[in-house]
Amino acid sequence: MIRARNFTRASFWLSAVAGSALAAAPVLAAEVTPERLLNAQSEPQNWLLPYGDYNNHNHSSLSQINRSNVGDLRVVFMQSIGGADFQVDSRFQTSPAVNDGFMYIGNPWGQVFKIDVTSGAGGKIVWINDAEVEEGTRMRGTVALLGNDVYANAAQYDMRMIKMDASSGETIWETSTMLDEEEAGRTDQRQTIHPIAIGDKLITSTTGTVRRNAVSAHSAEDGEVLWRFWTIPGPGEFGHETWAGDWDAYRTGGAAVWTQGAYDPDTNLVYYGTGEPSPWYDPTYRPGDNLFSVSTIAINVDTGELGWYFQEIPDESWDYDTVSPRMLYDITVGGSSRKVMAAWSRNGFYYTLDRASGDFLYAEPYTEVNWTEGLDPKTGMPVEYDPNALIQSYANNMSMVAGDPDSAQNTCPYFYGMPTLMPPTYDARNMMSYIGAQEGCFSQFLAEAYEHDASLFLGKRFSGRESSIDRSIGAVFAVDARTGSLVNKRNMEYSVYSGTLGTAGGLLFTATVDGRIMALDKDTLTELWAFNAGTPMSSPPMTYSVDGKQYVAILSGGQNSSGLQKQEELKLLQRSPNVIVFGL
């Protein structure tokens, strides 16, 4: 067991504004019990979990802002959460949590803010907890609320989890989230999501390529590590044989967990999607299926044991990781009610699985797909998949072959900006699922295969791949959850990294990387309202209410990916990190 380091020193500071806020208003809110989290959807005035509830629906029953009046939406207030030099590869991809009129949000430099929004007319900073990180470039998801405390991971390269008092902001403890260096394969480890609170545990994960990754549970009481599940199985573990060869290719790792999980109390499983194997552009380095990369994994919350897994692409070679947040809902399949888990995959398919067993039910493409001729309707595997082969060959000229300049040309879809960090929406009323992403195809080439020497990955990244893409476009997709079939699509000039937020007012809120925040009609995807923040947007929007009045909030200053999408005109766009709150 790894023990937490306990501190009596409070790593926070209070500004003059914070002091006046403390004096002017109480800083009390109802305790966030495990029962409240289980029933979070019954508190539409609050936003207690990363995507609204454990089902990850990213949908609110609030309807005061609706199709008839959204055109009157205006900025109510803005609150800066700036920090260090945020023009240098800083990525704002988080959303606030709200409990009884108090907002909590972290920035990429390990600072967590408590903001009093009870007046509705503005925000007042109550406290700032500063983890004093040496380097911070991104952090995703939402800080965890549990009991009368707030939990957050410090920053991308700062492997610490911090527990702070929700009333004062004082640090209660901090604990290391570092994996064993020998087991992980690298000393420079990363975490890019905050933990999620389930029962008396905080579930978190590591991210990044060229290393093994893991999902871990920490005690909410003292930070102790309770269990750890390696997403790349080691010697003696189930699935280790799927990393063939005698050069310990499994230690190059991959299978990162980039987004926060969904949780089903009936199965007691937490569901995550995993990233690509590493190096993803040379499958000959890692022959075999490479479990549990490009997979859905269901983990028992109490024990950390694998409940089930479903791998979408064995021996994958296009960076088609499948980390879009999993959604849980109930539908009728073949005349019978089924409890399912659904996912928008980066590979262009919308997958639906039985969430208790992991059995494949169906999958349909929602965009152009040419890396495979299709999926087996019984197994969900690509039709070209050969279970007896160590190196897979999918559709003609689509699989990466090192040294072959004609391999992997004009592959669809383009991996970057297809559903990854951006949360989808599920609307139980119309049984529709939505996502904002982008569309495009790409080509890639690897000059020669990597030398089969496991020591080469220690302390450095693989390199030498060339990739190219024509200009991509943004898109919002709508799928019928009962069939998985695409029903509607709206193309946009720029990519969507913010995902979608649905409301009972018949609206979808989203944002594009050029700074436009917009509301779409959920049925037609027609744009009903827009506001340009003048800074890149890549954070998910959320909604809450105070005294019966609904607000929509989003963090500005997102990722600038102009070069990756060939959107050169966005290169001069500057990042300005502000929580922007809209109301009627």
CATH topology: Methanol Dehydrogenase, Chain A
Q: How many distinct helices?
A: 3
Structural class: mainly beta
Query: Ranges with pLDDT <50 over ≥5 residues?
Result: 1-26
Helix content: under 10%
Sheet bearing the most strands, described?
5 strands, antiparallel
Describe this structure in words.
With 584 residues, the chain is mainly β. It has one domain: Quinoprotein alcohol dehydrogenase-like superfamily (Methanol Dehydrogenase, Chain A, 8 Propeller), CATH 2.140.10.10. The chain contains three helices and 39 strands. The strands form ten sheets. A five-stranded antiparallel sheet has the order 1-14-13-12-11, with no helix packed on it. Strand 33 (501-503) and strand 34 (507-511) form a beta hairpin. It is globular.
Q: How do the strands and helices of this protein lay out in sequence?
A:
Layout: E1 5-6, E2 12-13, H1 16-24, H2 34-38, E3 59-60, E4 74-80, E5 91-94, E6 97-99, E7 102-106, E8 111-116, E9 124-130, E10 138-141, E11 144-146, E12 149-153, E13 160-165, E14 171-176, H3 181-184, E15 196-198, E16 201-205, E17 214-219, E18 225-230, E19 262-264, E20 269-273, E21 295-300, E22 306-311, E23 327-333, E24 336-344, E25 349-354, E26 360-365, E27 425-427, E28 432-439, E29 442-446, E30 465-469, E31 473-480, E32 485-492, E33 501-503, E34 507-511, E35 516-521, E36 527-532, E37 542-546, E38 549-555, E39 578-583
Parallel strand pairs: 3-33, 5-10
Antiparallel strand pairs: 1-14, 2-9, 4-39, 6-7, 7-8, 8-9, 11-12, 12-13, 13-14, 15-16, 16-17, 17-18, 19-20, 20-21, 21-22, 23-24, 24-25, 25-26, 27-28, 28-31, 29-30, 31-32, 33-34, 34-35, 35-36, 37-38, 38-39
